Amino acid sequence: MNKKPTSNLKELRISKMAEQVKLLGHWASPFNCRIETALKLKGVQYEFIQEDLQNKSPLLLKCNPIHKKIPVLLHNGKPICESLVILEYIDETWKGTPIFPEDPHERAIGRFWANFIDEKCLPAIKKAFFTKDDKAIEEASELLKTLEAQLNDNKFFRGDNVGLVDIVANLFGYWVGVIQEAMGVELLTEEKFPRLRKCIDEYDNCNVIKECLPPREKLLAFAKVTYKPSQPTN
User: Rounded distance, CA 68 to CA 60, Å?
Assistant: First the structure.
């Protein structure tokens, strides 16, 4: 006796359930933008859920009870937290445009510089902006020089294609530019960092990337209200 063929409608429902992707985030967050960029590069459809960071939702607190922060990726109801972890999960889960290098050594190098950005550069940049101290600005500049040296003469950190380090470094372009204007601190200028600025401009002008960037004037207004010199740096 022949088996009954599986209903096409049933297969469609199963397929749809298997690809249920939600992103808990905030429109002004560069960390949120990292995840949206990765999902768009992979061609993954997702639902964006805007969080009120002053009144965090029960869903966010349930999904990220340790850090209670965005972004959080929900894939088939299962939460993944922390942007670097989420980026790796996305790259391993969906085929398409690769984010991490295929070579294990190159992958390790990419992870190293991604961590360098988040653990070294980001705290130094925050300190430079919020204190407006010359020494803090110089320390941040030295770290950015170290990062810029990794570009060599490449278009992006991984050569001609956008990869992990470019996505993680997104905050240096769009966000730092806006915050510089909002707070009156010049840090990442074309004169000081020509290669890094060129890489940033190339990145921000990629069609997929532009789709993920918030409106500049809206972000500037948000920055003027949110980022104040009296705000703690850690």
Answer: 7
